[in-house]
Amino acid sequence: MSTATRSLPRTIGAHAILLTYTAIALFPVILVIMNSFKSRAGIFGAPLTPPTPKTFDLIGYTTVIGQGDFIHYFQNSLVVTVASLFFVLLFGAMAAFALSEYRFRGNSLMGLYLALGIMIPIRLGTVAILQLMVASGLVNTLTALILVYTAQGLPLAVFILSEFMKQVSDDLKNAGRIDGLSEYTIFFRLVLPLVRPSMATVAVFTMIPIWNDLWFPLILAPSEETKTVTLGAQLFLGQFVTNWNAILAALSLAIMPVLILYVIFSRQLIRGITSGAVK
Amino acid sequence: MGSLKIENVKKAFGPVEVLKGINLEVTDGEFVVFVGPSGCGKSTLLRVIAGLEDSTSGRVVIDGQDVSVTPPAKRGIAMVFQTYALYPHLTVKNNMGLGLKQAGTPAAEIDRRIGIASSMLSLEPYLERRPAELSGGQRQRVAIGRAVVREPKLFLFDEPLSNLDAALRVNTRLEIAQLHRRLKATMIYVTHDQVEAMTLADKIVVLNAGRIEQIGGPMELYNSPANEFVAGFIGSPKMNFIDGARLGETAKTIGVRPEHLTVDPKSGSWKGTVVHAEHLGADTNLYLDCEKAGLITVRIFGVYDAEPGATLYATPDPARTYRFGADGKTIK
Ligand SMILES: Nc1ncnc2c1ncn2[C@@H]1O[C@H](COP(=O)(O)OP(=O)(O)OP(=O)(O)O)[C@@H](O)[C@H]1O
Ligand SMILES: [Mg+2]
């Protein structure tokens, strides 16, 4: 790093801006977590103060764990998210490889068609999707959600990954072909490891909307068996009384898995976002 | 055990014709170099030979066998790429052994061949390293080693030295020459570099815009170029081309190599002024603006002191002057 960018006022300025931004971004999250540890009176009396010995209360968490089948909802969310993520990455990467590697008639048209989904929200097709699921008997199954989310995530995945795959050296793939590797081996062993950072980027962008989605669980899988966390949390949101302790506790718990997945991907993610910018 | 025949090979990418009918024969053990300007189709031709690219029409025959529809791994070839193209996740040893492993060669035999290749290329200390832990020159040697262990009928090199620095290029060039002598294998080598072409080749193929301009030994191309393009492409500095009409000649163009001109301060054929002088120690390049011949280059062996602006007379060696017709072909 050159000394010019290290002058003291600049450093202070940059840090001040970044710290302010961090504070603003974290504020709601911290508020939720803080209040989830307080009694109802504590939440309403002084929403902005951290829990004190007087207001500290785990009632929210005990309600969540005691009432409803929250562990089960968690499991559902996790199964749906991880399975959708897996399929999006697998099929997205394979389609991207085909589009970027092989010259065939209608290649660019196919790319455009696959990318179209980025611009058209999948929710526009909700009614048709519901009819489809009813017809195929998939209503109230996790499979329905996984199928829908895979479809939802694929366009962006194909679009981003095919850009990255175009950058993988042709010579490397050709060397593999001369050494007798199959196209599958070339894809899984040579190309995929090289685009891992972009896979992580796609994973994060795909994962968060799926985990947070309320729409499709509500419509396609509202049964007790298949409820996801976001849907389960609605349990505490009444028309007349809302159990704020339980909601805040449920939300705090719901943050954890995404956070863990994010940490797993983030090292790769940073490389994915900055690759190209710095060699 | 390593002959190659290319019959009327054409290749088009969509409407763009990149190879316009290539015919070539390479005999066993020959070192053939493809040269030509950037974008003329050298790499494309090499990839067609390797089977990485299908030709639009024509046949590729290796060792008497039509391999036009054979996959690359079954053609008995090995290729070395400009960008090394080593497998980043494998050690040097596994990089070299992968092709054999895929072909089902017994492990002992793989080890034996890796041993021979790595001692030939002094790669023994690096066998357990990954490509990221090697220098550029070492990586290219590994890439060459990977080709050697396959014991191919045909080696294909696509500008293998152009990512290396000048000193390393000379060393690796020597190594490739020695390799060719030891293995007596057929090698096809693509390059931009004149020196590489002249020093390595038994036979040079000059390509231009998807066509072969001339095939011949290095000295044959230098001494009797078939046309203006080859004359200008082979030799450095480039041959001087002078409009025949200005010299009162019947030929369309007159060509003289810079080294076949002599200069004298008092008398000679073409009077000119020195525009610029390049002193290289072993020789001196003079750029002369001549009244009759226009701007020409003269190469003088040894040191020659000439200030820009000085007047000099240049005289071509009449026995080594080339004459080209309106179609660009050499007039004999
Ligand atoms: N996949 C492709 N699609 C379309 N055109 C291509 C493709 N590959 C190569 N070309 C074109 O074919 C021509 C020849 O390319 P090629 O790579 O064979 O040139 P080259 O002689 O090796 O040049 P260089 O010396 O710069 O490597 C170029 O004009 C190039 O644009
Ligand atoms: Mg090339």
Automatic annotation (TrEMBL), chain A:
SUPFAM superfamilies: MetI-like. Coiled coil: none annotated. Residues 74-265 form the ABC transmembrane type-1 domain. It is a multi-pass membrane protein. One of its GO terms (cellular component) is plasma membrane. The keyword Zinc-finger does not apply. InterPro entries: MetI-like, MetI-like_sf. Pfam families: BPD_transp_1. Keywords: Cell membrane, Membrane, Transmembrane, Transmembrane helix, Transport. Belongs to the binding-protein-dependent transport system permease family. This is Sugar ABC transporter permease. It comes from Rhizobium loti (Mesorhizobium loti).
UniProtKB/TrEMBL annotation, chain B:
One of its GO terms (cellular component) is ATP-binding cassette (ABC) transporter complex, substrate-binding subunit-containing. Transmembrane segments: none annotated. The keyword Protease does not apply. It is a peripheral membrane protein. GO terms for molecular function: ABC-type maltose transporter activity; ATP binding; ATP hydrolysis activity. Gene3D superfamilies: 2.40.50.100, Nucleic acid-binding proteins, P-loop containing nucleotide triphosphate hydrolases. SUPFAM superfamilies: MOP-like, P-loop containing nucleoside triphosphate hydrolases. It is found in: Cell inner membrane. CDD domains: ABC_MalK_N. Keywords: ATP-binding, Nucleotide-binding, Transport. Belongs to the ABC transporter superfamily. This is ABC transporter ATP-binding protein. It comes from Mesorhizobium jarvisii.
